[in-house]
Amino acid sequence: MQDTLPTARPNPLPAWVPQAVAHYLAHTERGCSIRELARKHAFHPSTILRQVRRYEARRDDPLIDAALTALSLAAHGHQKARTKETNDMTFVQRKGGAPSEGLSKERIDQEAKRILLR
């Protein structure tokens, strides 16, 4: 039985890009599986997985995120939708006025004693 790997695509990334970044972008942007990348580059799948997780965690840094996005755009000419839901927050005004209107000084003292005794 012959192992059927997809035909190797030429690497569109610059030569200075670390191999781990290339693996991360191949997995996330092109959809290559971890095992496929491991077979193609003669690594253990856990090594590729560790590299992918490392760069996924680094995307929290805006500079790293911008660099990876730019590399992906330069290499593949498109950007996958990586947008978060950015719905505006809304404020709902409760009927009946401010929440502190029904609280008297005596009620606050009573509740404070109950809570602070715990």
Give an overview of the whole structure:
The chain is an all-alpha fold and 118 residues long. The protein has a domain at 19-76. It is 50% helix and 0% strand. The chain has five helices and no strands. Helix 1 packs across helix 3 (45-58) and helix 2 packs across helix 3. The chain is elongated and about 75 Å long. The protein starts with 18 loop residues before the first helix and ends with a helix. 9% of the residues are buried.
Residue-averaged pLDDT, rounded?
79
Helix content: 40-55%
The tally of beta strands, per DSSP, is: 0
Number of helices: 5
Pick out the low-confidence regions. Answer: 1-8
Shape: elongated
Radius of gyration based on Cα positions: 26 Å
Strand content: under 5%
Major beta-sheet overview: none
H-E string: HHHHH
Structure summarized in a few sentences:
This protein is mostly helical and 118 residues long. It has five helices and no strands. The longest helix has 15 residues, at 62-76.
Key descriptive features of the protein:
5 helices, 0% strand, disordered N terminus, mainly alpha, 118 residues, 50% helix
